[in-house]
Amino acid sequence: MTDIKAVIRVEHPDIVLTETVTHDPGSTVRSVSEAGTDPTSGKFFYHIESSDFQQFEDGLRNDSTIGEFERVIETRAGEAIYSFEYTDEAKILSPVISAANGVILDMENDGSAWILTIWMPERTALARLWDYAQENDIDIDLLRVNEYASLGNTDAGLTDSQREALLVALETGYFEEPRNATLGDVAADLDISQPAAGGLLRRGIRRLIISSLGDHDEQPD
User: Fold this and answer.
1) CATH code assigned to 18-86
2) Where in the numbering of this chain does the HTH bat-type domain appear (predicted)?
3) Distance from the CA of 101 to the CA of which of 26, 58, 88, 124 falls in 20 to 30 A?
C-alpha cells in the first residue's frame, strides 16, 4: 500500500471563514495544525495575517459560519492567532477526511477558495471527499498528488520518535475536528512531556510536507 499527499482546491460560500476572507481580501488564513485544542471546547485555531484586524473582525461578525471568536495573541505586527467556534451552517471538510483516516497538514486561502494539503493512507480514500463535495455542491479540484511508501514503512525524513508521535496522534484522534484527544493525551501515550510531544508533531508534519512536495534539498531537522 502507498500513502498519498494530495493538494486540493475547494470552493463554496459556506466553507468556514470564506465570507470573512471575502470581506478582507488582503488577509491570509492558515490553520494551526499543532494547536492543542481541547476536544470539548469546540474551538479551532488559525494564524491570521491582515493589515487591518478591525476589517477582518467585521467580516467575522457577518460570517454565517463563525460563532464566537477571539484574538488570542498578536505574534507580530499584522499577524495574530485567533480561536473560532463554527456554526451549524459551516461546511467542514476535516471530519470527512478524518473518517477516511486522513489528516489535514495545511489549509490556506487563495482569496476565493481554500487550498488543502492532506495525507491519506491510500488514493481510493479521496473518493469520500469527492462524494461529500458533490453532495454539498462544493467545487473541488485535485491540484497535485504524490504517492510514497507507507508512513509505517519509510522514514520520509522522519525520526523514529517523530513517526511514533504522528501515528499515536492519528490513532488517538488528535487530528480529528473536533479533536477526540488533547496534546496531553498524546504525550501521556508517548510517556513524554506536552512540549516534547508538540515538538515531535510539528517537526514530523514539516518533514512529511517536505518529503511529499518534493523539496528534497532541504535538510532534516
Assistant:
1) 3.30.1360.100
2) 158-209
3) 88
